[in-house]
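Minutes, project check-in

Agenda point 3 was the complex the collaborators sent over. CS summarized: two entities, 721 residues total, and the question is how they sit relative to each other. Sequences were read into the notes so everyone works from the same version.
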Amino acid sequence: MEQKKITSLDDLRKIRENSKDLSSARSGGGTTVIVGMGTCGIAAGAREILNEVMSELARRNLDDIAVQTTGCIGMCQDEPLLDVIRSGQRVTYGRVKPEDVPTIIAEHVVNGRVVEKLAIGRAD
Amino acid sequence: MTIFRSHVLICGGTGCTSSGAAEVIGSFKQELARRKLDGEVLVVPTGCHGMCEMGPIVVVYPEGTFYCKVTANDVPEIVEEHIYKGRPVQRLMYEGSGDMPALPHYKDIPFYGKQHRIALANCGYINPENIDEYIARGGYEALGKAITSMTPAQVIDEVKTSGLRGRGGGGFPTGLKWSFCAAAGGEKKYVICNADEGDPGAFMDRSILEGDPHSVIEGMMLGAYAMGADEGYIYCRAEYPLAIERLKQAITAAEGYGLLGDSIMNSSFSFHLHIKEGAGAFVCGEETALMGSIEGRRGMPRPRPPFPANSGLWGYPTNINNVETWANVPQIISNGGEWYASMGTEKSKGTKVFALTGKVKHTGLVEVPMGITLREIVFDIGGGILNDKKFKAVQIGGPSGGCLTEEHLDTPVSYESLTALGAIMGSGGLVVMDEDNCMVDVAKFFLEFTQKESCGKCVPCREGTKHMLLLLEKITEGKGTMEDLDTLEELAHMVRDMSLCGLGQTAPNPVLTTLRYFREEYIAHIRDKRCPAGACTALLRYTILQDVCKKCGICAKNCPVHCIPGDRNSGYRIETDKCIRCGTCFEKCPFGAIEKK
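CS then shared the predicted structure for the full assembly.
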C-alpha cells in the first residue's frame, strides 16, 4: 500500500487528530471513569463492566477519557462500582450492569447529565 | 479504532536498557497477553526520563504512576495489582521522606521539581520510533507554520527574538549565526547537526536523539528553510548505536510522510537529510574538523576565516548547530520567540540540559531554566552529596571547562557568569566532587583526555598539553618543585592563547581553575609531599596505629610485597620504602588499625 503523503498543514492536522489517543491517555483526559476492580468488584462482574466501558468508548470514538481501575473501597455490597469524575464532580454508580454502561457514557460522560436512578453517592 | 485505557511507558534509553529495560518490556507484553489485557493496555518504549540511576523506569498512565528500578520479576505484580486491580505498587515507587514514604508522581519527586523541560519535553513521554506520537504532540506543526505562513527572514527574526544561543558550548547567538549563512550567496547550502558529543560523562545530546529524534530533524528543517539550504547532515559518533538507529528510523518515517524530500507540503522547499557516523575523535566536535570528516578528509581543524557560513562543507555556505540547539527551534517557532525569551537571565535565555554526574545522590539528565544556581542543581535536584560527605567542587563544561568551589554555588548559571569564573557553560557536563577528590588529580584526568584527543596539527596544543601533563604527573608523584607551578601556569596561558581551535584554547581551563581556586592543594603536593584528599597513590602513607592494632597479622599475611615485618608478640610495622601503596592491608584489617594519609 502506498503510504499517504502529507501535502498540506491540514493533512498534518488530520494525522494529529487521528493520533490523539496516543497522547491523551497520558495527559489524563478531561473526564475520568473509574471501575472498582477489587476482589469484590471482580466477583460481582467488574471485568465485564470494564470491557463494556472500553468498547463503548471505542464505538463512540471517545479518545480523551481516562479509564482507571481502583481497589476495594468498602462498599462491597454495591459492586460493581463505577465512578465518573466530570468537571470536578465525582459520582459513584452502584450495582452497574453491562447494559447500563452505554447509558452512563451517553448521559453522563458525554452530556454531563447524572444518571440518577443508578447513582448511589457523589462528592464535589 | 482501538482505545487503550492504560499506557505503560518503559524507558528505552541507553541507561535503562543497560539495566534491563528490554527484559521489562518483554515481560510486560507477555504478562498482558497472558491476562488478555493486551487489547486495552499499550506498552510504549520511550526515551530517557533523566533519572538513569533509578532505572529501569516505568510510568503507568492514565494515573502517571512512576516506578523505579523495575525488574522483569516485578512485572506480574504491577500488571495484576495496578493495571488489573487498580492498586498501585507502593514498594516500587520513588522513596520519599517523612510523612510521604512513597511518591507516586513525577511532580512530587524533588529531582523533577525544579526542572523545566523544553528540549526534553517529549523525552520519556513519547515513543521515539513512532512519528505519529510526535505529530500527536504538535510535531511538525512549526515546520508547517513556517513554510505556509512565514518568510525565511521571519523565521530568523523569531529565533533572534528568542535569544537562543549555541548549546554546544560556545554560546554564539543562534539567530545571528543563521543570518550570516542566509546572507551568503550561492545556490547550494548545507545545515549540519553536531552530535559528536564527546565530553566524559556527558549524554545530553544522546538522550535527545534517542528520546525525540524528530525534534532535531524538524529544527534542522526550520533552519534549512530560514537559510535556504536543501541538504543536511547529522554528524553522530558511532559510539551511539541506539541514537543512530532511532535517527535512521525517524528519517525514513519522515520521508514516508513526505515531510523530508522534494516540495515539502507542496511548497518550493525541499530538504534531504543524511547521517554521517563519526569515528569518535573528540576534535571532530570542532566545526571545521567535523566538516573535514564528512568530506572524507582527516578530522583536523583549519583556521577561520573563512567561516563555515561563507565557505563550509565542500566550500558551500554551511550552518552548524548542536543537537540541543536544533531541538529547541520547533518550540520557539510554535510558541514564539518572546515565550522562550521569558525564561532565563538577561543574556542567557531559555533552558539548558545538564548531565549531572559524580558524587551526587541522584545522577541523571536535568533541564533547568538559565539563571538557576549551582546549589539548586546539586542539592535540590541532585539531592546533595553521596554518603553525606562534604561538597568540594563542581566541574562544569567537561574537559574544556573549569572547577568551581563552594563559594560559587550561589552563582546563577549563565554563559557570562561561568566564563567570568574561568569555567564555561560547555555542552552541559556537570561533575560533582567531594572531599575525597584530589583537584590536582582531576586536572590531570581532564588534561590526559584532551592531550590524547589533540589532533596534533598545531604546536601549542600538541606539545603544550603534553608538557603540562608531564608536569602534573610529576607533581602528583611528589617530585614537583615550586618552579613547576609557574611553568605550568605559563604553559597553560600559552596553550590557551595560541592554539588553533577550541580544543586547545580551552584545554588548560581545568588546570587554570584548579590553580586559581585550589592552589594550596598543589602546594601540599609539592612542599609537603602530601595529597590532602588521599587520592594520589604515590603520595600515600600507610601506617599501623599501634594502640588500635590487635597484632593479628592479617595485614602481613596479605601484603603482596611482604613489607610488613613483625610477629604476634612484638606487633607489626609497615616498611614505607618497600610499600607499593596497593591498599590491601588497609582493606583487610578487621580493626581499622591502618591509617591512610
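Noted in discussion: Chain B touches chain A at residues 1-7, 9, 40, 42, 61-64, 83-87, 125-126, 130, 132-133, 135-138, 140-141, 144-145, 148, 256-259, 265-266 (CB under 8 Å).
Follow-up: revisit at the next meeting once the mutant set is ready.
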